[in-house]
Amino acid sequence: MPLALLALAVGAFGIGTTEFVMMGLLPNVADDLHISIPTAGYLVSAYALGVVIGAPLLAAVTARMSRRKVLIGLMALFVLGNALSGLAPDQHWLLAARFLSGLPHGAFFGVGAVVATNLAAPERKARSVSLMFMGLTVANIAGVPVATLMGQHLGWRATFLGVSAIGVAAIASLFFLIPADHTHAPAGGLRGELAALRSLPVWLALGTTVAGFGALFSAYSYVTPMLTDAAGYADANVTFLLALFGVGATIGNLVGGRLADHSLRGTLFGGLTSLALVLALFPLLMGAEWSAALAVTLLGVAAFITGSPLQLMVMEKASAAPSLASSANQAAFNLANAGGAWIGGLALAAGFGVTSPAVAGAGLAVLGLGVAGAAWAVDRRRASVHVPVPGRLVAVHVPERAESVRG
């Protein structure tokens, strides 16, 4: 494994920690700032809004810069946003700081995915992306619980200052481990980058991300009441069970990366099918404590098997603008977060039962399969009209291989 991938993983670990730790710190923040918990919940939305806006915007405006410099600059913005969060005097400043913290999130993963694929041999591109994303999944196992405990004992401000320190470590890692490159935008500049996103296959790939990960968040957003009300777990055990989800996500991420190097589209179809089945079985699996723990783990595995394939699929379809498309995929992931939680909430509010958000998620996973199938049909039709493609679609068509970062 190139050490440069470790630098990307460190950055991903910091980003994953700051994204999810706010959920555990909401009561602390609300008490300290004398606001209600629902009002404090806007801090989660502010971060997500920053991701959605910042992902395509920052990827586009930095397209002509060295990707190494872009990654370091994005992480510097991350450090600033988290430091300002820790020093925020009131909820309004904290809201703005959380929005600022979210801006570099999507662009970092988008540009980082392009760098990761350029660091790897053609047959290991998906694995290289999964190793970068491993920082995000490990954050759910270690980073978020530790940061939450730190906030509970030292104050929530200490947590964000600690996350800033992780960002500083990531900057140092990126500076010393990512080789300098001189990769610039295509000749068309920003207009050419945006033009590359007008392709139907690109939007079908992004739609698959929204539906597929919307399925995950439809269930995961309400997994705590499922575990306590349906499976009978005590509230104190939920943190451990959520760590099991992180373990499953890490396994799924690594397995998905390895499988996608052999069959990108086959891994995507298999992951979405597995996700639909796991979610459909949630009402049954939540009937006992042991099976509920298994369900949470399998949910992480099935959902994150699709992560690397979706990232590479989007990059492949927007070959003239891989950084912008990859960043847009991160924005789609956060739209899935919001949309999935909303749909799961509708099922819960309709009185269909505490496990109904998982069943709604199964429907979204089937929708994702349908969108992925439509993308496959479009590809086959275009291939038959234009240029024949290999019978096996693998992740070897990521653009600018000639400009690969030297590792």
TrEMBL record:
Q: Which residues cross the membrane?
A: 42-63, 70-89, 95-119, 131-150, 156-179, 200-223, 238-256, 268-286, 292-310, 331-352, 358-378
- Note the InterPro entries from the entry: MFS, MFS_dom, MFS_Efflux_Transporters, MFS_trans_sf
Subcellular localization is given as: Cell membrane
Q: Which UniProt keywords apply?
A: Cell membrane, Membrane, Transmembrane, Transmembrane helix
Q: Does the keyword Transmembrane apply?
A: yes
Where does the source fall among the domains of life? Bacteria
| Record-annotated Major facilitator superfamily (MFS) profile domain positions | 4-380
Q: What topology does it adopt in the membrane?
A: Multi-pass membrane protein
- Its primary localisation, in coarse terms, equals membrane
- Supply the name of the protein: MFS transporter
Organism in which the protein naturally occurs: Streptomyces yaanensis
